[in-house]
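Entry:
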Amino acid sequence: MMKNTILTFLLVLLFVGCKMQNGGLLDISGLTVEMQKNPEGVSTLHPRFSWLLASDKQDVMQTAYQIEVATSEKDLKDSTNLVWNTGHVVSDQSSMVEYAGAPLESNKKYYWRVTVWSNTGNKAESCIQSWSMALLNDSDWKAQWIGLNDSVNLKLDGDRSILPARYLRKEFDLQSKPKRAVLYISGIGSSVCYMNGERIGNDVFGPLPTWYDVSVPYLTYDVTSMIKNGTNTVGVALGNGRYLSMRAHSMHGFGLPRLIAQLNVEYDNGETVSIISDESWKATSKGPITENNEFDGEKYDARLELGKWTENGYDDSAWTKVDLMESPKGKLVAQISPSLKVMEEIKPVSIKSVGEGRYIVDMGQNMVGLQQVKLTGKKDKPITMRFAEVLKDNGTELYLDNLRSALVTDVYTPARMVSLFGNPRLFIMVSSL
């Protein structure tokens, strides 16, 4: 009796929020546009809609659907000013239904819902979902490519490329709290972006690497909640990724890292303004990340930390004006695939001291990720972490022959006595035991 009650309660919870008619429980879930939930920056002019149907009864099938799309939640709720209304379509299709309404507009947000009828006579209406369009035309971009044209800082250690990360920032003023604010950004090779001191998104090594002579992906973020009336600050930490060759003579490269960013702001009265990357930005390469290379690792010197450089009022008088950089040969395109993200956190299965201040940390599996370590570090004394897939037969040394020339080493230098060494800030992906 208790088990039946619990199961019934769980079913009720599962189907809460759906509008149903004719009795029975019918639930619409898993709503996606272009296989993503509420995606930002969709570039196709005919996005595809998908959904899942669930019921508390057996042998329930969809017999018809209706998709409605509007440019506001209110219009969608009222079924007015719709840009697409399929009407009642007799079909069991619930995957990849292609948009066939009015032409979709660049930088526009759309809201949609689907109503489903089943063979049991039930009808269910989904919750309202949304998606936004990318910048569809080259002319929509007002921003310029910027960076530091400082080849003099590019060092070579044999074939190994060494270049510090660069940090870029811009303060800007807005007349009021915006109705909507969307950031379109491509920091290549790798980048992390901040708004008013808060990290934007949870992408790792965004945007994804590609052959930059053909295409250059950009990411789209709705940052409305992060923007405030008055002064705001956008900051970007820019790493080498795959844009700068990791091996100067034996791998293809595309040049020095660079950034393009455009923040489109819309006010309640319909007025719009764009904050763009241009010569007004400031930059420095004299920050804590002195080396970053996907083969070799990251060197982080906490003695060079820049303070609150992503926040308003920061003194950047010692920074330089950015350089305008040549545009990559490839076309700017909205990134279709999701970026790399942290999917799971695992703990080591063992930590073994092997003498002379060295420890073997066994993660129990071959993995790719970022390390988080708690330890006590001494001021000015580097902490070195090296990574491998297997140990040598003696069990006290890493086997590195299969990694060839890759150094796979992170080095953290404390600025003071510390008790915490976190994960690398930006650009290093490592395989470890």
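Residues 382 and 413 are 4 Å apart (CA to CA).
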